[in-house]
Amino acid sequence: MLDRPGYTAIDLRPLAGDAGTSAYSVSDNEFVVGESGSTPARWNREGDPSALAVLDGYSGGRACGVNKTGAIAGILHIGDDLRPVRWDPTGEVQGLELPDGTVSGAVNRINERGSMLGGAMEPGYRWRAVRWTSEGRLMELEPLTVGGETQAHDLNELDEVAGTAKDVSGVRTAVRWSGSGEVSRLPSPRRATACCVNDEGVVAADGVSWSRDGRATLLTGGPAFRAGQTLKITNTGATIGWGATTDGQQIGVRWNRSGEPTVLPPLPLDTASTCFDINDAGLVVGESAGGTTVRPVWWDENAAPHPLPSPDGLDAIVAQHITTTGNVIIGYGYDRARATYRGIAWYRS
After folding, report:
1. What is the top-level taxon of the source organism (predicted)?
2. How far apart are CA 290 and CA 272, in angstroms?
3. What is the pLDDT of residue 1?
4. DSSP character for 301?
């Protein structure tokens, strides 16, 4: 039997004082980014933070995504308005253009080629899905109808996008955008939101996935649970999400390429589990809960759960992201002495 890797927990310390910290993204080159207090930040392997530059006139923000080159995408804020930005690997910040007629915007993904995905908001909280090139050039993603609302949720390495759009009757439907920004409605059985897309062009939503040519695979429940929310799909076609057991407990689930489910059980003595990310090797991260206790957990390729440790002074709560290599996991915990939440990075021992 192979020995399982262990992980060492690192506290992602604040830039100053007792501020809380949050880790939002980690790359295969082990860049961790997020925010300290209300300042965008990145951390080294020892958990030491450095502030990311802020454009003049903006009061703070957060780093939302990072790729293996160290390019970072995020947002800055001034009052209620948000400005999408990009930091290059040296830390220089660039404001990203927004479409005419919009007042605010955000970035939620950056891929390895540097393309960035997000949205721009019109007055009245109407969203328009947009993408930027690695140089910051704006591309608006096509709506189903002229002036129709669109929202983007995931981006693959071919710049294909999964999301949602309103049709001519105003009903939301799951859609896919090509690398050139052309929209197509996903066929029946449809769901309102397409939440993720892999590099083969397979799109997943709650209860279903679609191949590039539109063939649907149902992500069903098993005798122990009913299917629920879908979160992530890998390049090997594995999908994760969660469902509800017959006694009403939330349970993490991994579906294979054919749509067959495997339950991701909680740690011993716990009663519920939730998963948030998976890599192409099939390693999954999330949380295990029982009573008033919540613990971070990772599941191996055989769906066996393993606990993650807490750094000194923190109670680790949840693991949210894992790198493709599995070398780094990020999440957060609670600092009881300072009554604040702190980001945590777990490095493979």
Report:
1. Bacteria
2. 6
3. 31
4. T
